[in-house]
Specification:
By secondary structure, the protein is of the alpha/beta class. It is about 45% helix and about 15% strand. Helix 19 links the parallel strand 14 and strand 15. The radius of gyration is 25 Å and the shape is globular. The structure holds 2'-deoxyguanosine-5'-triphosphate, calcium ion (2 copies) and zinc ion. The site of one calcium ion has 4 residues, from loops.
Length: about 575
């Protein structure tokens, strides 16, 4: 399967493109295609053989040609040319907060810096002292950011980890002596990025581990013993597998699910109660009387705690809440009643309104909002007044069809409108008023300082037509940090004006992040969890958004699109 290879070449092309020209949307198109290809269930070479590359969302004539070339030659001539012009590890350098494509280029042109190590050396020996555009306050901050970037280069997005987990699970299911398995670690806690997978299996047979390491998906065995093995899968991603005895299953699951900080708090609590907690079980500290260990529930119970969902195990006072029986009843995927951000062919999406609606209906939703880009963002094929009216006719007639067919499903006409430099929205109020729902977001002027950005958001919050602030920080996970925004001010503004903040489920967005969303919920904000889908298959990203919401302690009452259609309409009208 060449999917990862094709995706990584396209990603690299995106980075170089961004460095060389002023058209961020071209780079965006390459990245989007890369993501699709990575998520493809079948081998891309098979798709190519069947002549179906163009059916992949985001793949047009230009990208199709590129994929064909990569499959044939393993590389892209045009990219090789760019690389020989500036042989730079762009993707790693871009992970340094404050460094953008233009800076990468000038770092190379002026100082011949090609990678993170050379950037670090230049920072330490003072060569960067007079260099402008690094966006860091002093060399200490820059060194910290370089260190962070180094850590990031080893992690993958949750969505990529999901596809690796599928392969691991596939392999485990084929081993008869594996009686039970679980994927623990940060994956079970549904963190937005994953460092490695921690897999537990229950088995009597020493052959189980051997059978796993000889599976197709395993590229390299890093370390192997009778009860533990570490392997590398494709893209150098590590998987640790451990055999766990049945009486320790629950204790091991707790230990290897983590987080480390949660484990430490649990163990401290155990000690205070006269117990000893390890991955083998909960014991009385004076001897080896076993108190619990076979299930997680029994361990928590013996520690006087309610069961704590994995997403909550981050040492954010969840142990205290479990002791007082006041843990949140976390939002579940099937409590989501609709999706309030998606794009269609009317702007930069890949499918029509009805296709999106039908896909949403088959997920059991009661409603969706079509939120194409509007205004003067010409580049995303944004809608003007005339096309908005045409779109309204299409949506109205689809709703009529549902209504007359007795189908309880409705399509809202919404829009994603850009917040311009001065906090004014890029569409007249008279038009915004005519829409069912309005999302406002920032797509330009990322480099504005914190006051300016905060002022822009205030402008949007105070506009009574705005219902939701979409992807409120603008970060792209593992790619770029968000813009500088005063989150407390944003949360306060949302509360003051009754505006909803979004958790954007698109896998590399996920803003608000878990900490910010936790803060927002605790302050009483209502959040919307949506997918920002640009094709019907991307509606699947809801599960990723919901995971982030769960990490933020969200209950259904905190989530706008957990409301049924009637209550949603009531809320939007208020
Ligand atoms: P990752 O892989 O970086 O995304 O994050 P985790 O949380 O999966 O961390 P990992 O793979 O290093 O370890 C898996 C779990 O094992 C971790 O969440 C908690 C537990 N663990 C690992 N090392 C320690 C430790 O030194 N002390 C304690 N109490 N627990 C540990
Ligand atoms: Ca891990
Ligand atoms: Ca690990
Ligand atoms: Zn957007």
């Amino acid at each position: 399967m060449q999917n990862s290879l094709v995706a990584s070449v396209l990603r690299e092309l995106a980075n170089f493109t961004e460095m060389e020209d002023d058209q961020p949307y071209r780079a965006l198109a390459y990245r989007r295609a890369a993501q699709k290809i990575e998520a493809l269930p079948e081998a891309i070479e098979e798709t190519a053989r069947q002549g179906k590359l163009r059916e992949i969302p985001g793949v047009g004539e230009n990208i199709e040609k590129k994929i064909t070339e990569i499959l044939k030659t393993g590389k892209l001539e045009s990219l090789e040319k760019l690389k020989s012009k500036s042989p730079v590890d762009v993707s790693s350098l871009l992970r340094v907060e404050g460094i953008g494509p233009k800076t990468v280029k000038s770092l190379y042109n002026t100082l011949r810096i090609k990678n993170l190590d050379e950037l670090e050396a230049a920072t330490r020996d003072g060569r960067l002292a007079s260099f402008k555009g690094l966006g860091a306050r002093g060399s200490q901050q820059l060194l910290e950011r370089i260190e962070n970037a180094k850590l990031l280069t080893r992690r993958v997005l949750l969505v990529e980890a999901k596809s690796i987990v599928e392969r691991v699970v596939d392999q485990l299911q084929q081993i008869p002596s594996v009686r039970r398995y679980a994927v623990a670690g940060s994956y079970r806690r549904m963190k937005e990025t994953i460092g490695d997978l921690d897999v537990l299996i229950e088995s009597d047979s020493p052959e189980a581990i051997k059978a796993f390491t000889s599976g197709d998906a395993v590229k390299e065995v890093v370390a192997a013993g009778e009860t533990k093995v570490s392997v590398k899968m494709e893209k150098n991603f590590q998987v640790d597998v451990r055999v766990v005895p049945i009486e320790s299953w629950g204790a091991a699951l707790i230990y290897f699910t983590g987080s480390k900080a949660h484990n430490i708090e649990l163990r401290t609590r155990a000690l205070k109660m006269g117990y000893h907690l390890s991955e083998y079980g909960l014991f009385k500290s004076d001897g080896d009387t076993r108190m619990a260990g076979a299930t997680e529930e029994e361990v928590y119970k013996s520690l006087g705690l309610d069961y704590i969902e994995p997403e909550l195990r981050e040492a954010r006072r969840e142990i205290n809440a479990a002791e007082r029986h006041v843990l949140p009843k976390l939002l579940e995927l099937d409590q989501i009643k609709g999706d309030l951000q998606m794009h269609t062919k009317w702007s930069d999406g890949h499918e029509g309104v009805e296709t999106m609606a039908e896909a949403a209906r088959s997920k059991g939703y009661e409603y969706i909002a079509i939120t194409d880009h509007v205004g003067s963002l010409k580049i995303a094929n944004a809608l003007d007044e005339k096309r908005l009216k045409e779109q309204k006719r299409e949506i109205d007639s689809l709703n009529k069809k549902y209504e007359s067919g007795g189908i309880a499903f409705r399509v809202l006409q919404g829009a994603e409108v850009n917040i311009m430099a001065d906090g004014i929205l890029d569409l007249p109020n008279s038009l915004l008023k005519s829409l069912d729902i309005v999302l406002a977001s920032i797509h330009t002027g990322f480099k504005d300082d914190v006051d300016k950005i905060t002022k822009r958001f205030r402008g949007a919050l105070e506009n009574e037509n705005v219902d939701i602030i979409a992807h409120p920080t603008g970060r792209l996970i593992l790619e770029r940090p968000g813009y500088k925004i005063d989150l407390r001010a944003l949360i306060q503004g949302a509360l003051d004006t009754g505006t909803v903040l979004e958790i954007d489920g698109h896998p590399n967005r996920l803003d608000l992040n878990d900490e910010n969303a936790f803060e927002a919920i605790r302050s009483g904000c209502l959040l919307s969890v949506d997918t920002d889908a640009h094709s019907a298959s991307e509606l699947e990203y809801m599960s990723i958004g919901v995971a982030q919401a769960r990490r933020s302690w969200a209950e259904p009452k905190n989530i706008l699109n957990a409301k049924n259609y009637k209550d949603l309409v009531k809320f939007l009208a208020s």
